[in-house]
Write a structure and sequence with these properties.
metal-binding, 873 residues, 31 strands, alanyl aminopeptidase activity, single chain, five-stranded mixed sheet, eight-stranded mixed sheet, Neutral Protease, domain 2, Immunoglobulin-like, hydrolase
Length: 873
């Protein structure tokens, strides 16, 4: 059982000292790094208080206050902390000299070695592995950093802020030094240092005010050619933030470093972003269209943090969504503006439903603002990020854009240079939106329930049609979808709606009106045109206006109508998703609804005619079935193998029924797939979707064409070809996989996608294939990307992972125990593959339970144990 005490929001006490400035000196040797910190410390109160500093795996060499060396018992020292028992009551200088060993640090926290370079990851609690410090986000300081190292081993020495000096040491010409200064106060989790052999690609950006910003991206030798997309993405983000939020970059330099061994996607360290190399190194030959857009989005996300996260940070880690939810909202808006608002909304909703909604229903469910945690690393979740972003989106909808931006401006003006809370943000938003007026259109306390309550709200909708007066009466009722059946908490749920006439060419009778559900039950009256005889068709939660699930009395013909006629991208797509879920549900209950299947296939054929040329990306999206997690959520007792089998059979049916139409479209698309991203991405997306359906339908010529397309100059086409062959497990699949491997075996970023493909595709050889991948000479146990590729891919190999003998689960448990020894953060996140075990049929449930017990009995980290115990209990 866990022995680590949980940390509670209710126990928060502000740190009793200010640390306005820190000077850090790093002396990098061959087997250790000597760190000297000099902190100016100001007690906040006159009363005496112990000075408590955190430290982890640090060797203390000396400690002094105002030049006087301290001796025991003036301080106490353990493996986790350093305590000054009676510090001065007025401002003083604390100097600590210590030693760390980054060369044997496999946790990827603090300072560690990656491919010959030293790099850092300090969020959330990695700084305590570098030097003794409070290591909490509400302690903000101005940093000056000196780094010294052997010039040939570490020619590049980087830290936050602007470069102030560089040169060789007078005492030793083989060593050199750099001094960096960050003029803006920041919490220690934003500290960064990189030292190693790196090449740089330089560019510049001129702000709207005419300031010149130097951009530098640092990569390993040979990777320079893959940085153009990252540079362009950064410049777009800088321009967008100035144009939309009026926020200009505040330093003279902006640096990005690509690192292979990195737990996160990227880290927004002030002025020195450190990125997982997968999210920097890319062009259309090495990355798919979706990956290029993802990279553009992540680079923007980390840049946007400069204001929403860095200049204003979170007071404590319970406020994590303050910076992450807001910044995800900003990066989603950025992508929407650059590409397609409707398609981006569908992408975000699909992700939310398949991951965050599943998290909300599972044992690791937590509020956007949790009340307690054991390991904060376990709370970097879809709830904090994506659900947090949805709350900001609702606020924008409720306030209107003009008022929303007024509120954002006041928040930034008020809290710049400080650490804030969720409530600070919400109150600033409302105050800025309405100035001194007190006419907020919604109940603020009820809205804050979105932050405090876990679970997904569910809305029940019923209609009655008054044909005499042409009035549609609609009732709405809300409940939170949690284990607590009597939870009657009232939320503020904005509902965008339209309704369409069945009689007048599908014209909207009411369009994009806003209804706010802020009581357990509330009613809406929609006046339609006089003389309307039939009830109009209601289109609800347009643009996915609230992160809820809903159940309405719309009938199948209503959904078919919306699938063909709705002018809102999300609502049209959602109607199709509902119809496909219904088809698959009836199939899985052995009650095939052939009439519905026939109607839906005909609707697809009509959709093809209208969208084939005008919007190929949307067409591809409309004919893609719901995600696996969504399908699992339809059943109280989940049979994963059967769900997978029926979903494949249904896709075979679609492929066979629209075979002729798909053949014609595929032929027409071939001349349109070679345009440079973002041009041509719709055509490439649709061609890949068509290949998948035709390949499943047994079209041998298409399957052979897919093998030939593995060497296509577009990675999107190459990976689409692999995907089309993936379910088949035949000699063509094998041939295509081998071709792809031989093309990309020297590129570790691309090769991760091959590892994931091999681990997730059906195999007759079973778990031996996964073992072989893990012992492959190109597999890197220290790279989280590689671990996620193989073990994450294996968890998506439905027949293998969920095999009824339980061997897939036990294998996963064994491997996660191994991963936990070197990287607890990666292990604790991956163990969540077992989180839905109680929803499975008995045979699967028993197998996962046995594997969870095995994990729980093992000597695992507190990170992983916290998650395992939550899942078990």
């Amino acid at each position: 059982m866990s022995t680590q005490k949980s940390i509670k929001l209710s126990d928060y006490v502000e740190y009793p000292f200010l640390i306005p400035s820190i000077y850090l000196d790093f002396d990098i040797g061959t087997d250790c790094v000597v760190v000297q910190s000099s902190m100016i410390i100001k007690p906040k109160k006159k009363e005496s208080s112990k000075l408590v500093l955190k430290g982890n795996q640090i060797k203390l060499l000396s400690i002094s206050i105002n030049g006087k060396e301290l001796k025991l018992p003036e301080y106490s020292f353990s493996d986790k902390s350093l305590i000054i028992n009676s510090p001065p009551k007025s401002e003083f200088e604390l100097k600590i000299r210590s030693q760390i060993d980054p060369f044997r640090n496999t946790s990827l926290e603090g300072l560690y070695l990656s491919s010959g370079m030293l790099t850092t990851q300090c969020e959330a609690e990695g700084f305590r592995r570098i030097c003794f410090h409070p290591d909490r986000p509400d302690v903000l300081s101005r940093y000056t950093v000196r780094i010294e190292a052997e010039r040939t081993l570490y020619p590049i020495l980087l830290s936050n802020g602007n470069e102030k000096y560089s040169g060789n040491l007078n005492s030793n010409n083989l060593r050199h030094e750099f001094i960096w200064e960050d003029p803006f106060p920041k919490p220690c989790y934003l500290f960064a240092l990189v030292a190693g052999k790196l090449n740089s690609v330089s560019d510049t950006y001129i702000t709207n005010k005419g300031r010149l910003i130097d951009i530098r991206i640092y990569v390993e030798k040979g990777d320079e050619k893959y940085t153009k997309h990252a540079v362009n993405s950064l410049k777009k983000a800088m321009k967008w933030d100035e144009d939309n939020y009026g926020l200009e970059y505040d330093l003279d330099e902006y640096k990005i470093v690509a690192v292979r061994h990195f737990n996160m996607g990227a880290m927004e360290n002030k002025g020195l972003n450190i990125f997982n190399s997968k999210l920097v190194l890319a062009d259309s030959k090495t990355a798919t269209d979706d990956e290029l857009e993802r990279i553009e989005s992540v680079i923007a996300h980390e840049y946007f943090h400069n204001w929403t996260g860095n200049r204003i940070t979170c007071r404590d880690w319970f406020q994590l969504s303050l910076k992450e939810g807001l910044t995800v909202f900003r990066d989603q808006s950025f992508t929407s503006d650059l590409h397609s608002k409707g398609l981006k909304r569908i992408e975000d909703v699909s992700f939310l439903r398949n991951f965050q909604f599943a998290e909300d229903k599972g044992p690791t469910s937590h509020a956007v603002k949790p009340k307690e945690y054991v390991a904060i690393d376990n709370f970097y979740t879809t709830t904090i990020y994506e659900k947090g972003a949805e709350l900001i989106r609702m606020l924008e909808l409720l306030l209107g854009k003009e008022k929303f931006f007024r509120g954002i401006n006041l928040y930034i003006k008020t809290f710049d240079g400080s650490a804030a809370t969720t409530e600070d943000f919400i109150n600033s938003l409302i105050k800025g939106a309405y100035l001194e007026e007190k006419n907020c259109p919604f109940d603020l306390d009820k809205f804050l329930n979105w932050y405090y309550k876990s679970g997904t709200p569910k809305v029940y909708i019923n209609q009655s049609w008054d044909s005499k007066n042409s009035i549609l009466n609609v009732s709405f009722e809300q409940k939170i979808d949690t284990d607590k059946t009597n939870d009657n908490t009232e939320m503020v749920i904005p509902i965008l709606y339209s309704c369409y006439s069945r009689e007048k060419g599908a014209n909207p009778l009411a369009e994009n009106n806003l209804f706010v559900l802020d009581k357990n039950k509330k009613y809406l009256k929609i006046n339609t045109l006089p003389g309307e005889q039939q009830a109009p068709v209601l289109s609800l939660f347009r643009c996915f206006s609230s992160p809820v699930v809903w159940e309405s009395d719309l009938v199948i013909d209503d959904y078919l109508f919306l699938f063909l006629n709705d002018n809102d991208y999300f609502s049209r797509w959602d109607s199709g998703q509902y119809l496909m879920r219904e088809i698959l549900k009836t199939r899985l209950c052995n009650k095939n609804n052939f009439s519905l299947e026939h109607k839906f296939i005909n609707a697809i054929k009509q959709t093809i005619k209208s969208l084939e040329i005008n919007d190929p990306f949307f067409l591809a999206t409309l004919i893609t079935i719901p995600g696996f997690a969504e399908l699992e959520s339809l059943f109280e007792k989940v049979d994963p193998i059967r769900i997978y089998s029926e979903s494949i059979d249904f896709q075979v049916l679609i492929g066979n029924e629209i075979l002729q139409e798909l053949r014609v479209i595929a032929k027409n698309l071939f001349g349109k797939i070679d345009h440079e991203w973002p041009m041509g991405k719709g055509e490439r997306k649709l061609l890949g979707t068509i290949w998948f359906y035709l390949s499943l339908a047994g079209e041998r010529d298409v399957q052979k064409n897919c093998v030939e397309s593995i060497s296509h100059s577009s990675m999107t086409i190459s990976r689409a070809a692999l995907g089309a062959l993936k379910p088949l497990d035949n000699n063509l699949t094998e041939e295509a996989s081998n071709l792809f491997y031989n093309l990309w075996k020297e590129n570790p970023v691309v090769l991760d996608s091959w590892f994931a493909y091999e681990a997730s595709r059906p195999h007759k050889r079973g778990i031996n294939v996964i073992e072989k991948l893990l012992s492959h000479p190109k597999f890197d146990w220290k790279a989280p990307n590689a671990i996620r590729a193989v073990l994450g891919g294996f968890s998506k190999n439905i027949d293998l992972f969920h095999s009824l003998d339980g061997q897939g689960y036990l294998f996963m448990a064994d491997k996660l125990i191994e991963v936990d020894k070197i990287n607890p953060i990666t292990a604790s996140r991956m163990v969540k593959v077992f989180s839905k075990w109680k929803t499975y049929i008995d045979k699967n449930k028993e197998g996962i339970y046995e594997s969870l017990l095995k994990l729980n009995k093992a000597n695992i980290s507190s990170n992983t144990r916290e998650v395992v115990e939550l899942i078990l209990n």
